[in-house]
Write a structure and sequence with these properties.
alpha+beta, Nuclear Transport Factor 2, Chain: A, 6 strands, globular
Amino acid sequence: MDAAQLAGEVADGFAEAWNRHDMAALGQLFHDDADFVNVVGLQMRGRESIQHHHGAIHASAYKNSTLRVVVEDARGIAPNVIIAHVHTQLEGDARAPGQTRNSLLTLVIERRADEWRIVAGQNTAILPAGQLGAASIR
């Protein structure tokens, strides 16, 4: 299986667990020592922290959310290590009714003991051009 296929399996698993609101299944996609940074910059260290923080938001604002994913690109960067960029669309955030949030999820996927799991993730919000304000670079 090539890098794009492996990344697709992991990204699809992420979306499937998200859409079932099954944070135990989501956690199983990560190595025990993984790091994840969400769209507001919260860094979660370790699988337990990733599950805990995602579980809390899925019990509230994301309890009816759905996530769609598309792998934009993926490549091996070292033996047993893949980096992937995944476009995501989130709907159903109770804090933003009727809105779709787009983000770019960067995943580092590592093979250990014959299992491909996420070792690092960074989720970056894609803002509409009118919302970039002072942060935009021209």
